[in-house]
Write a structure and sequence with these properties.
mainly alpha, about 75% helix, about 0% strand, globular
Length: about 180
Amino acid sequence: MSQIEKPTVSPSLVGFLGRFTVVHVVTYFAIELVFATLLVYPEYFASVYGDLLRPFDDPLVMAAPILQLIRGPVLALPFFLFRRVILEGRWGWLKLFFALWILTAIASIVPAFYNIEGIIYLKAIPLQLRLVTLPSLTLQMLTFSWLFYTWERRREKKIAIPLVAALIVIVALLLMGLLVTISP
Protein backbone atom coordinates (compact mmCIF):
# COMPACT_ATOMS: atom_id res chain seq x y z
CA MET A 1 0.00 0.00 0.00
CA SER A 2 1.55 3.27 -1.08
CA GLN A 3 1.57 6.17 1.25
CA ILE A 4 -0.13 9.33 0.01
CA GLU A 5 2.18 12.30 0.18
CA LYS A 6 0.69 15.15 2.18
CA PRO A 7 1.34 18.53 0.58
CA THR A 8 3.40 20.92 2.61
CA VAL A 9 2.70 24.60 2.94
CA SER A 10 5.55 26.91 2.02
CA PRO A 11 6.39 29.43 4.72
CA SER A 12 7.26 32.08 2.11
CA LEU A 13 5.18 35.18 2.81
CA VAL A 14 6.18 36.89 -0.44
CA GLY A 15 5.23 33.87 -2.55
CA PHE A 16 1.92 33.49 -0.74
CA LEU A 17 1.06 37.18 -1.16
CA GLY A 18 2.10 37.08 -4.80
CA ARG A 19 0.03 34.03 -5.72
CA PHE A 20 -2.96 35.32 -3.73
CA THR A 21 -2.75 38.67 -5.52
CA VAL A 22 -2.36 37.20 -9.02
CA VAL A 23 -5.42 34.97 -8.57
CA HIS A 24 -7.37 37.80 -6.93
CA VAL A 25 -6.75 40.28 -9.75
CA VAL A 26 -7.42 37.77 -12.54
CA THR A 27 -10.68 36.47 -11.04
CA TYR A 28 -11.79 39.97 -10.03
CA PHE A 29 -11.32 41.27 -13.56
CA ALA A 30 -12.77 38.26 -15.39
CA ILE A 31 -15.89 37.82 -13.26
CA GLU A 32 -16.64 41.54 -13.00
CA LEU A 33 -16.18 42.03 -16.74
CA VAL A 34 -18.75 39.32 -17.47
CA PHE A 35 -21.28 40.50 -14.88
CA ALA A 36 -20.82 44.21 -15.64
CA THR A 37 -21.55 43.46 -19.28
CA LEU A 38 -24.46 41.07 -18.72
CA LEU A 39 -26.17 43.07 -15.99
CA VAL A 40 -25.37 46.50 -17.43
CA TYR A 41 -23.76 47.73 -14.21
CA PRO A 42 -23.47 51.41 -15.22
CA GLU A 43 -27.25 51.77 -15.46
CA TYR A 44 -27.81 49.64 -12.37
CA PHE A 45 -25.43 51.60 -10.17
CA ALA A 46 -26.75 54.93 -11.49
CA SER A 47 -30.28 53.84 -10.51
CA VAL A 48 -29.21 52.89 -6.99
CA TYR A 49 -26.57 55.49 -6.16
CA GLY A 50 -27.32 58.34 -8.53
CA ASP A 51 -24.47 60.84 -8.62
CA LEU A 52 -22.57 59.33 -5.68
CA LEU A 53 -20.54 56.98 -7.87
CA ARG A 54 -18.02 57.86 -10.53
CA PRO A 55 -19.04 56.92 -14.08
CA PHE A 56 -17.64 53.67 -15.45
CA ASP A 57 -15.46 55.53 -17.95
CA ASP A 58 -13.78 57.54 -15.18
CA PRO A 59 -10.02 56.77 -15.16
CA LEU A 60 -10.08 55.80 -11.47
CA VAL A 61 -12.90 53.32 -12.05
CA MET A 62 -11.07 51.98 -15.09
CA ALA A 63 -8.00 51.50 -12.90
CA ALA A 64 -9.91 49.46 -10.29
CA PRO A 65 -8.51 46.09 -11.41
CA ILE A 66 -4.97 47.50 -11.32
CA LEU A 67 -5.59 48.88 -7.84
CA GLN A 68 -6.48 45.33 -6.79
CA LEU A 69 -2.71 44.77 -6.89
CA ILE A 70 -2.72 46.69 -3.59
CA ARG A 71 -5.87 45.09 -2.19
CA GLY A 72 -4.68 41.53 -2.93
CA PRO A 73 -1.74 41.48 -0.51
CA VAL A 74 -3.83 43.27 2.14
CA LEU A 75 -6.48 40.55 1.91
CA ALA A 76 -3.80 37.85 1.85
CA LEU A 77 -1.99 38.89 5.03
CA PRO A 78 -4.48 37.55 7.58
CA PHE A 79 -4.93 34.34 5.58
CA PHE A 80 -1.18 33.76 5.63
CA LEU A 81 -1.44 33.34 9.40
CA PHE A 82 -4.00 30.54 8.92
CA ARG A 83 -2.52 28.97 5.79
CA ARG A 84 -2.02 25.57 7.36
CA VAL A 85 -5.67 25.30 8.37
CA ILE A 86 -6.76 26.35 4.89
CA LEU A 87 -4.21 24.55 2.75
CA GLU A 88 -3.47 21.34 4.60
CA GLY A 89 -6.96 20.61 5.83
CA ARG A 90 -9.75 18.91 3.96
CA TRP A 91 -11.97 21.21 1.87
CA GLY A 92 -9.52 24.08 2.35
CA TRP A 93 -10.75 26.00 -0.68
CA LEU A 94 -14.27 25.97 0.75
CA LYS A 95 -12.99 27.19 4.12
CA LEU A 96 -11.18 30.01 2.35
CA PHE A 97 -14.31 30.87 0.36
CA PHE A 98 -16.56 31.04 3.43
CA ALA A 99 -14.03 33.10 5.39
CA LEU A 100 -13.65 35.58 2.52
CA TRP A 101 -17.35 35.70 1.71
CA ILE A 102 -18.48 36.23 5.28
CA LEU A 103 -15.80 38.75 6.25
CA THR A 104 -15.80 40.84 3.07
CA ALA A 105 -19.37 40.51 1.81
CA ILE A 106 -21.79 39.78 4.59
CA ALA A 107 -20.15 41.05 7.77
CA SER A 108 -18.10 43.94 6.40
CA ILE A 109 -18.31 47.01 8.64
CA VAL A 110 -18.65 49.26 5.58
CA PRO A 111 -22.28 49.59 4.49
CA ALA A 112 -22.94 47.97 1.13
CA PHE A 113 -26.38 47.37 -0.24
CA TYR A 114 -26.12 43.57 0.26
CA ASN A 115 -24.51 43.28 3.70
CA ILE A 116 -25.76 43.62 7.28
CA GLU A 117 -24.46 47.17 7.69
CA GLY A 118 -26.11 48.19 4.43
CA ILE A 119 -29.45 46.84 5.54
CA ILE A 120 -29.14 48.86 8.76
CA TYR A 121 -27.74 52.15 7.44
CA LEU A 122 -28.78 52.53 3.82
CA LYS A 123 -32.18 53.86 2.94
CA ALA A 124 -34.83 51.64 1.42
CA ILE A 125 -33.46 49.93 -1.65
CA PRO A 126 -35.58 47.22 -3.27
CA LEU A 127 -34.39 43.69 -2.53
CA GLN A 128 -33.64 42.89 -6.19
CA LEU A 129 -31.33 45.92 -6.37
CA ARG A 130 -29.65 44.90 -3.12
CA LEU A 131 -28.91 41.40 -4.37
CA VAL A 132 -27.91 42.01 -8.00
CA THR A 133 -24.14 42.06 -7.35
CA LEU A 134 -24.12 39.23 -4.81
CA PRO A 135 -23.92 36.48 -7.49
CA SER A 136 -20.84 38.04 -9.09
CA LEU A 137 -19.20 38.49 -5.71
CA THR A 138 -19.97 34.90 -4.75
CA LEU A 139 -18.76 33.46 -8.07
CA GLN A 140 -15.58 35.53 -7.94
CA MET A 141 -14.80 34.32 -4.43
CA LEU A 142 -15.60 30.68 -5.27
CA THR A 143 -13.41 30.82 -8.37
CA PHE A 144 -10.66 32.63 -6.50
CA SER A 145 -10.71 30.19 -3.56
CA TRP A 146 -10.55 27.10 -5.75
CA LEU A 147 -7.80 28.47 -8.04
CA PHE A 148 -5.68 29.78 -5.16
CA TYR A 149 -6.06 26.56 -3.16
CA THR A 150 -5.16 24.50 -6.22
CA TRP A 151 -2.11 26.63 -7.02
CA GLU A 152 -0.89 26.60 -3.42
CA ARG A 153 -1.17 22.82 -3.17
CA ARG A 154 0.26 22.10 -6.62
CA ARG A 155 2.98 24.54 -7.52
CA GLU A 156 2.95 23.67 -11.18
CA LYS A 157 3.81 25.78 -14.20
CA LYS A 158 0.59 24.70 -15.91
CA ILE A 159 -1.27 26.69 -13.24
CA ALA A 160 1.18 29.55 -12.75
CA ILE A 161 1.91 30.44 -16.38
CA PRO A 162 -1.70 31.05 -17.55
CA LEU A 163 -2.55 33.04 -14.41
CA VAL A 164 0.55 35.24 -14.57
CA ALA A 165 0.10 35.69 -18.33
CA ALA A 166 -3.54 36.70 -17.78
CA LEU A 167 -2.44 39.21 -15.13
CA ILE A 168 0.13 40.74 -17.48
CA VAL A 169 -2.42 41.01 -20.31
CA ILE A 170 -5.05 42.54 -18.00
CA VAL A 171 -2.67 45.14 -16.59
CA ALA A 172 -1.24 45.98 -20.04
CA LEU A 173 -4.68 46.41 -21.61
CA LEU A 174 -5.95 48.52 -18.73
CA LEU A 175 -2.86 50.72 -18.77
CA MET A 176 -3.26 51.26 -22.53
CA GLY A 177 -6.93 52.09 -22.04
CA LEU A 178 -6.07 54.54 -19.27
CA LEU A 179 -3.41 56.23 -21.39
CA VAL A 180 -5.89 56.68 -24.23
CA THR A 181 -8.53 58.00 -21.83
CA ILE A 182 -6.33 60.54 -20.04
CA SER A 183 -4.27 61.71 -23.02
CA PRO A 184 -5.32 65.06 -24.51
